[in-house]
Amino acid sequence: MGIMVQKYGGTSVANPERIEAVADRVKRWHDQGHQVVVVLSAMSGETNRLIALAKAITDEPTPREMDVMLSTGEQVTIALLAMALIKRGIDARSYTGTQVAIRTDSAHTKARIEAIDDARIRADLDAGRVVVVAGFQGVDADGNITTLGRGGSDTTGVALAAALGADECQIYTDVDGVYTTDPRVVPQARRLTTVTFEEMLEMASQGSKVLQIRAVEFAGKYNVPLRVLSSFGEGEGTLITVDHAEDDMEKPVISGIAFNRDEAKLTVRGVPDTPGIASRILSPIGDANIEIDMILQNVSADGSTDFTFTVAHGDLKKAMAVLEKVAKDVSAREIVANGNIAKVSLVGVGMRSHAGVASKMFSVLAKENINIQMISTSEIKIAVVIDEKYLELAVRSLHSAFDLDAPAP
Amino acid sequence: MGIMVQKYGGTSVANPERIEAVADRVKRWHDQGHQVVVVLSAMSGETNRLIALAKAITDEPTPREMDVMLSTGEQVTIALLAMALIKRGIDARSYTGTQVAIRTDSAHTKARIEAIDDARIRADLDAGRVVVVAGFQGVDADGNITTLGRGGSDTTGVALAAALGADECQIYTDVDGVYTTDPRVVPQARRLTTVTFEEMLEMASQGSKVLQIRAVEFAGKYNVPLRVLSSFGEGEGTLITVDHAEDDMEKPVISGIAFNRDEAKLTVRGVPDTPGIASRILSPIGDANIEIDMILQNVSADGSTDFTFTVAHGDLKKAMAVLEKVAKDVSAREIVANGNIAKVSLVGVGMRSHAGVASKMFSVLAKENINIQMISTSEIKIAVVIDEKYLELAVRSLHSAFDLDAPAP
User: Fold this and answer.
1) Mind listing the pLDDT tens digit for each residue in A244-278?
2) Its catalytic activity (chains A, B) (predicted)?
């Protein structure tokens, strides 16, 4: 008996039949005596359909108007789910981001939630109603419609759960939880019962796309228990918490392995090793709105240095164009680009208390003759860049070596 | 130089290309120095698409939730038009019914406008902006989204024009004005330069579907000059005003001929001619939500009476079922139904000052051997019910006899 916030993604509400299935699931929770708030995305495909309409008119759609248009996607699904619940004899009411109200700043298409007025929702819950809220959208101080950016519905769910002091925020999606790694690469991958916010953040930023990073940050900040589960089956999913369960005697050293093929490496060779050189190379890249992931700098014997960094694969061409100008300014010898790389990351809070994780990782890769091109570490993560063709081999070997494989059935 | 409210219907914004054409037209008015407020419908077909989604979930969609869903249609078109205007260098801003705010009562799916807060629009107009408002929708006192019913965008346009004291409310549609009669039946039909509100109301209620009746009533009540024109061509369209132009020396006796095939006639024969008999027959019809158009009662020689009335063709079966019960109660002899009838109406404010319009109408029909089954008159209208097969012949003969034919080219 508590307040449950349930968020269903686009594939879970893709058509009337699936919306009916969501209504069945919501009804079960409601019948058990829970107060249920549902947050919905737009039907999968709808956002792309709307963007295509805008692009047919202009290459640069005005962000304010994009938000007016894009916010209609969730407005359709919330109304349909409310109808489906009412058909099942449950009193339900839908609300747009404006109606709730989910107050955001005015950064159209990527707004941030500032406050939520929960009075209306609480009154509905107390009256026995199920409340259905449009995800992804809000309203600024002047009454303009805003959106939170792709995947923003997760953030809406977590923010509502925080505002209402919900017992749990359940994120229903098309996977049944967070896995030790992508089961398409490692069939022995295991669903995690729990994972910490920190681990989830590292895994998300390393390429595991189960949850939006902002939603995890938000949940961590407000200590909202977050659970990822499948909207197509049953099961406990994965609970994301502050720490692993107290009674988990054998806390895992490594919780999961994330990887990302979508990276490219750029090396600026023979740069004079003088102060400020990194900034002179990277500032123009940032100015061009290119995000940088890993950075590495080696000093050569001749007093010059090689400067290496990675960017998203789609930004490689743009980054090259920027660097060619910069290279002359800093008298670099040459620029080398490599699009055939991949990043593999071990993630786990247990790493803090266990020495030797890094050396074990490197020896596992060495045994498979996989050369490490770059290394980056944090408190709970070790990431390496390798040749893309070794990605599957590397992930499988590490998954097995760190005892992540599921027991044979 | 004045405030122009322009309303574009669903076919005028059916796709991005047509929205661009609307933007071109709006730009021309804006460039001439007018302050322009645009009211839009949803893309044609969109409302039906949404209704089909709701019907896939439930046969009885909750009206409140229907409104949440249906209001998205205009929200998409207003954003797209604003983008198209901004692309043309015009500062533009879109508003939903909630944002404006168009305050209505809470009668979901058929709400009535109670008030409009025009502060925001005036500020935008004064800043040189074009304001694009979602038609068909509003918001009630509790912040719930409401809709005005089919064709409600016309009403939004007129209400905004009234609130802003606009110089004109222009209704852009797929016809280029109001005609003396349907040109598909009479190729010689002429576009009217002006028509009065009263005439327009009679023509609309008699089956001419250019404008929504509520919009015309609203315009008449607040004395808003209303103009119907084509969004696909140029031309002055038809101006709907309080009276025909002063300088129109030869005010027409008849402005137009409306007709309606969608009627059916029911006769209850041999009813005792006692007080209250009409009410005993018609009350059950009204209770069954069947609208009655014309009513006629004849007294027979034997002291009994025949009672005849017309209903929409689609209600004929339902009305028969009701009447069969009633017939016993009032000891009627028999019930006769006729679905093969049509109504033809002459409309014109000039009728008031010209005797002999009725007799001329009857003699024209007699000359063609068309039998008149029912007659109904108002101050500015004479309507007759005839056999459906004579409809085209009747309309053409009357159109010619009352000098409505366009001069030969």
Assistant:
1) 765 555 567 899 999 999 999 999 988 888 878 88
2) L-aspartate + ATP = 4-phospho-L-aspartate + ADP
The residue that leads in pLDDT, A1 or A281, is: A281
Residue A31 amino acid letter:
D
Q: Is the dihedral of CA A287, A289, A292, A293 positive or negative?
A: positive
CA distance B226 to chain A (A): 29
Within 8 A of A82 by CB-CB distance, chain B residues are 62, 65, 68
**Do residue A62 and residue B86 have CB atoms under 8 angstroms apart?**
yes
Work out how many domains chain B is built from and give that number.
Answer: 2
- Average pLDDT, stretch A74-83? 98
Looking at residue B47, what DSSP letter applies? H
Residue B198 lies in a domain: no
Three-class secondary structure of residue A300 per DSSP: coil
Contact at CB, A57 and B96, closer than 8 angstroms:
no
Same domain, B147 and B268: no
User: Judged by CB atoms within 8 Å, which residues 16-35 of B form the interface with A?
Assistant: 16, 19-20
Q: A16 and B53 in contact by Cβ < 8 A? A: yes
Q: B188 in helix, strand or coil?
A: coil
Same domain, A168 and A269: no
- The 3-state DSSP class for residue A158 equals helix
Count of A-B CB contacts under 8 Å: 103
Provide the pLDDT for residue B72: 98
Q: Establish if A221 belongs to a structural domain.
A: no
pTM of structure: 0.84
Query: Which domain CATH number covers B160?
Result: 3.40.1160.10
State whether B57 and A143 contact (CB < 8 Å): no
Residue type, B404: L
Structural domain for A133, as ranges: 3-174
Pick from B250, B245, B255, B144: nearest CA to B199: B255
**Residue A208 — pLDDT band, cuts 50, 70, 90?**
low
| ipTM here | 0.83
Do B170 and B272 reside in the same domain of the chain? no
Which two tokens mark A71?
A: 């916010």
Q: Is the pLDDT of residue A200 over 80?
A: yes
User: Average pLDDT over chain A, rounded to whole?
Assistant: 91
By the 10 Å C-beta count (0-12 exposed, 13-18 middle, 19+ buried), A355 is classed as: exposed
Residue A39 has a pLDDT of 98
Same domain, yes or no: B18 and B119: yes
Place of tokens 């002179």: A280
Question: Based on the domain organization, do B29 and B157 belong to the same domain?
Answer: yes
User: Do A169 and A261 fall within a single domain?
Assistant: no
- At residue A229, does pLDDT exceed 80? yes
- A233 CB-contact burial (10 Å; exposed 0-12 / middle 13-18 / buried 19+): exposed
Read off the pLDDT of each residue in A99-120 and give the average, rounded to a whole number. 94
Could you tell me the two tokens for A180? 């030790």
**What is the reported pLDDT for B176?**
87
Same domain, B156 and B281: no
CA-based torsion, B183, B187, B192, B197: positive or negative: negative
Phi-psi region of A149 (alpha: psi -120 to 50; beta: other; left: phi over 0): left
In a domain, A292, yes or no: yes
pLDDT at B247: 54
Same domain, B167 and B290: no
Identify which of B78, B83, B99 has the shortest CB distance to residue A62.
B83
SS3 of residue B334 by DSSP: strand
Residue A345 lies in a domain: yes
Domain closes at, from A174, A202, A233: A174
Q: Among residues B174, B205, B237, which one ends one of the domains?
A: B174
CATH at B262: 3.30.2130.10
Query: Which residues of chain B are under the pLDDT cut of 50?
Result: none
**Residue A409 banded pLDDT, cuts 50, 70, 90:** low
In one-letter notation, the amino acid at residue A333 is: R
Tell me which of A26 and B277 has the higher pLDDT.
A26
Per-residue pLDDT band for A109 (boundaries 50, 70, 90) equals very high
